[in-house]
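Hey team,

Filing this mostly as a record. A colleague (T.K.) asked me to run one chain through the structure pipeline before their review meeting, and I want the input and output archived in the tracker in case anyone asks later how it was produced. No errors, nothing strange. Just documentation.

Input sequence:
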Amino acid sequence: QMADPFLYDTGERSQYGCLGHEVQIEHIKAYVCRPSFFTDKAVIVIHDIFGWLFPDIRYIVDLIAGHGYITICPDFFKGTDPWKTTDHWADFADWMKDHDPMKVDKEADVVLKYLKEQCDAKKIGIVGFSWGGMAVHHLMLKNPQLTAGVSLYGRIIRDSEERYSLLNPTFFIFGEKDHTISYDQITLLEEKLKQYCKVAYKIKVYPGQVHGFAQLKPEDMKPDDKPYIEEARKDMIDWIKMFI
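Output structure:
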């Protein structure tokens, strides 16, 4: 039997009333939240396996928008079904074949074009969680239009040494108790980035935290985890503010 990839229970979640609205951009739907004043700075948020409709991810979009960024979470699954809590983990590998986080370039280009042409964005950053964290790592190697990136607990794929030649500053956030990403993998990532990366990067591991910890809404946090969740979110936003 395959171990469940995620320790956090997505079933027990409080509802969330969103502050933004949905838009259609070419072949993709997206959730957008804007600050109350004009800005030419934007952040793309890449959802996890539970998709762009999941309340946690919309909460994160609104949170980042509150810091003064046009924030957008596109449906990177292009209308296909996200992973559901009722699905069987035995089918997860097959589902992943049809939802490859390394194949997000076309959708990222569509969203970048929209942000530049429709929203007058001049500087654009990207953050992604889990599946989205893997997609961010991929895009920060491929797309120079992304000024800075934050990858939160994206599994570390090692297909080549090119995986460490980041184009722009990237911050990697991990949880110490994430059983999908071993400490050895994180150590190796650090060694390889030291060797190959020519831009600013940062790796930080948050004590006691499991996979998915940083996207919890305040009312869903356990008191012991709350300080680390808040710290991770502040670190994420500080990294964006440093470069965008």
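Quick notes for T.K.: Residues 25 and 114 are 7 Å apart (CA to CA). The first helix runs from residue 55 to 65.
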